[in-house]
Amino acid sequence: MKCPYCFHRDSRVIDSRSVEDGTSIRRRRECPSCGRRFTTYEKYEEAPLVVSKKDGRRELFDQKKLLGGLLKAFEKRPVPYERVQEIADKVERELRTLGESEIESTVIGEIVMKYLEQTDQIAYVRFASVYRQFADVNNFMQELQRIMSKNEQDEKK
């Protein structure tokens, strides 16, 4: 690794540590020429995910956009930001494990709804009302009744 200070073509690794849940490595390095130390990070390169929209458009997957949608769903709910970030991370990981370079937005929506339903039912209903584009109150009530009957079944177990 080239030194960022004197541009010497070599450096030696002093310390290596795993960071970000083992998805990258932090290395402390020292330049043998000028003696200065610097930090580098090694991370595997991920292939870009392309989202195929309902209207036929394609755009790159953006976790910030996903996080923004989740934050709207969790607005004024007692869910810590760390949990919301964790859901965004899990959704992205699940998308990457599909092994596809292009993913339909409906697949992303269903995965998000799975995590929301497990975390907070109000956030789930908020997200579902936008994602499923409820046309009227009847559609909304059908979804609420589905959740309520599922809760009753879970309580009986």
What does this structure look like?
The protein is of the alpha+beta class and 157 residues long. The chain contains five helices and six strands, in the order βββββααβααα. The strands form two sheets. Strands 1-2-3 form a three-stranded antiparallel beta sheet, with no helix packed on it. A three-stranded mixed beta sheet has the order 5-4-6. A hairpin with a 5-residue loop joins β4 and β5. α2 (81-97) packs across α3 and α3 (105-119) runs antiparallel to α4 (121-131). The protein is elongated. 12% of the residues are buried.
Key descriptive features of the protein:
157 residues, alpha+beta, 3-stranded mixed β-sheet, 5 helices
User: What is the average per-residue confidence, as pLDDT, rounded to a whole number?
Assistant: 89
Order of helices and strands: EEEEEHHEHHH
What is the terminal-to-terminal distance?
Answer: 59 Å
Strand order in the sheet with the most strands: 1-2-3
How many strands in all? 6
Rg, Å, rounded: 22 Å
Characterize the biggest β-sheet: 3 strands, antiparallel
Fraction of helical residues: 40-55%
Q: Name the poorly predicted regions.
A: none
Secondary structure elements and their pairing?
Layout: E1 12-19, E2 24-30, E3 37-43, E4 50-52, E5 58-60, H1 63-73, H2 81-97, E6 102-104, H3 105-119, H4 121-131, H5 137-156
Parallel strand pairs: 4-6
Antiparallel strand pairs: 1-2, 2-3, 4-5
